[in-house]
Amino acid sequence: MDMELWYTEKQTPDHGITSKIRRTLYHEQTDFQSMDVIETKTFGRMLVLDGMVMTTDEDEFVYHEMLTHVGMFTHPNPKKVLVVGGGDGGAIREVLKHPSVEKAVLCEIDGRVIDVSREYFPAIAGALSDERVDIQVADGIQHIEAHKGEYDVILVDSTEPVGPAVGLFQKPFYQGIYDALKPDGIMVAQTESPWFNRDLIAQVYQDISSIFPVARLYTASIPTYPSGLWSFTLGSKGKDPLSVDVSEIPELETKYFQPELFHALFKLPRFVEVLTQGEK
Amino acid sequence: MDMELWYTEKQTPDHGITSKIRRTLYHEQTDFQSMDVIETKTFGRMLVLDGMVMTTDEDEFVYHEMLTHVGMFTHPNPKKVLVVGGGDGGAIREVLKHPSVEKAVLCEIDGRVIDVSREYFPAIAGALSDERVDIQVADGIQHIEAHKGEYDVILVDSTEPVGPAVGLFQKPFYQGIYDALKPDGIMVAQTESPWFNRDLIAQVYQDISSIFPVARLYTASIPTYPSGLWSFTLGSKGKDPLSVDVSEIPELETKYFQPELFHALFKLPRFVEVLTQGEK
Predict the structure, then answer these.
(1) Min Cα–Cα distance to chain A from B43, Å
(2) pLDDT at position A218, please?
(3) How distant is the Cα of A123 from the closest Cα of chain B, in angstroms?
(4) Residue B26 in contact with residue B36, Cβ under 8 Å?
(5) Which distant-in-sequence residues (6+ apart) come within 8 Å of A60 by Cβ?
(6) DSSP for residue B70
(7) At which positions is spermidine bound (chains A, B) (predicted)?
(8) What's B272's domain CATH number?
(9) Is residue B261 a contact partner of residue A266, using CB atoms and an 8 Å limit?
(10) Angle, in degrees to the nearest 10, between helices A198-211 and A171-180
């Protein structure tokens, strides 16, 4: 009888998920983080950075669709898009589903994430070979400082707020994004769990509200992320997503997002909505 | 140094949650199931039946509010309400927040769940002492057969579809509920995870659609339940929840439900909506 291998992520010091794995596929200590690829029985292949699940075959569609399409459909005509982080390529894949896009820049600090994703997650990373994609292995904070007023949409597809991603949850970074956006530009950032990261969500919402004329919070169900509920924070220099005419949103090939979900996303459970009102 | 105790629930054969516990508080093998009360660091006290989390101090509000208020606010004037299962009393607590309610019947097959909940979960079970509550320690299927045309709202607060609750997920039970409801009656059942129980949800939705003129599916985020996303299926002999005027819903003291969430609940992610269309 083979031994049973289980991967356990402590999502908080006292709680986590545990998943049976068929085999470990890859391990590397990159210049920035520890990186593992494992094959789980329930969620397929799983990319793990610094011990935390980043993406899995089975539920990656939720995170990548929901990070991308809400902001992209709020913008009237997104041509030039930046993804900060997101080396697995999933957000870029979703960005490229929008025919208006002429250029999609991926700015990922750890080039090894890109290489390993291409090898082990071709369904996620495959779009990185599209000719509209410009891959920059570089620091996202420096990139936005060097590209003022250039982007229509900027998506922040960061790891958790530890290690290389700490600066991506701080106010100066959001100000930098504001400056890197065109006058009607829109940003969306992944902003952790409404169950486990309430202080962070409230702080980021306050920071983005203080910089952008429009700030909105929404959530999605991601079973391999802490608590299974994940939040995204949108900042807009132009259009408010609440004023989007849903009948004008074209159908894309998606598994989670659909046009009729668009406005419902901003109706939040009370314990989540209070995070936008300065409570925690 | 004390040993570390962790409770692990395999929510599928190959995936689950694990939670550090301060101590075990109670264990009993009842006539129907194994019952444990443990104190976790992240979610407070946790009631575990047959090894599966039923409720916790920290996230119980979601399940109990969302099982209860959607159906209760769809009904124009719910006076007599039945909860099948739900021995912890949480659904009854929410039912009693509606001033129209004259009688709330709890029909729980395992009286020990009621006793232990009263002792270890007073904030959840306390409402069971309200004078409007009629506690029946009995089989839910037999109860509904003996009470035809009596109820305005019936809530099915069952355990998972194994052991004593198997019959509560089958079509004859839903037909029995239909018969136990008054002409404008409404039922809501907890119907498991859209990630892990797709066949079951599709089957239950089809069964309820074939019996009730109106069937609706909605979801809520419950971190200690499998996948973190939970589904509820509503059947109505009268009003369609989609036709409820939200401006007429009074504010209750709730932490998850709020009136402006009401219609948004029925806008489903595409991978969930297909379950209502015969796909899986």
Answers:
(1) 9
(2) 98
(3) 18
(4) yes
(5) A88, A90, A124
(6) H
(7) 64, 88, 157-160
(8) 3.40.50.150
(9) no
(10) 40
Burial of B66 (0-12, 13-18, 19+ CB in 10 A): buried
**Residues A135 and A123 sit within 8 Å (Cβ to Cβ):** no
How many whole angstroms separate alpha carbon B168 and alpha carbon B102? 26
The DSSP-derived string for B82-93 is EEEE-TTSHHHH
Question: Among the options B157, B199, B207, B245, which is catalytic?
Answer: B157
> Please, are residues B132 and B61 in contact by the beta-carbon 8 Å criterion?
no
**Percent over 90 (pLDDT), chain B:** 93
Asked if residue B121 and residue B30 are part of one domain, the reply reads no
User: pLDDT by residue (tens digit) across A28-78?
Assistant: 999 999 999 999 999 999 999 999 999 999 999 999 999 999 999 999 999
Low-confidence ranges of chain A (pLDDT < 50): none
The pLDDT value recorded for residue B88 is 98
**Residue A42 marked ligand-binding:** no
Amino acid symbol at A274:
V
User: Quick count: other Cβ atoms within 10 Å of Cβ A251?
Assistant: 7
Residue B230 with chain A: CB contacts under 8 Å: none
Give the distance, in angstroms, between the CA of residue B62 and the centroid of all CA atoms in the same chain: 10
For chain B, the domain total comes to: 2
Q: What type of residue sits at position A66?
A: M
Cα–Cα distance, B150 to B106 (Å, whole number): 14
Residue entry with tokens 């010091």: A13
pLDDT of residue A123: 98
| Residue matched to tokens 């209750």 | B252
Judgement on whether residues A128 and A17 belong to the same structural domain of the protein: no
pLDDT band, residue B2 (cuts 50/70/90): confident
| Segments forming the whole domain that contains residue A26 | 5-56
Best of A267, A272, A276 to mutate (most B CBs within 10 Å, chain B): A267
Indicate if A44 and A128 belong to the same structural domain. Answer: no
Beta strand extents in B116-221 (DSSP E only): 133-137, 151-157, 181-190, 214-221
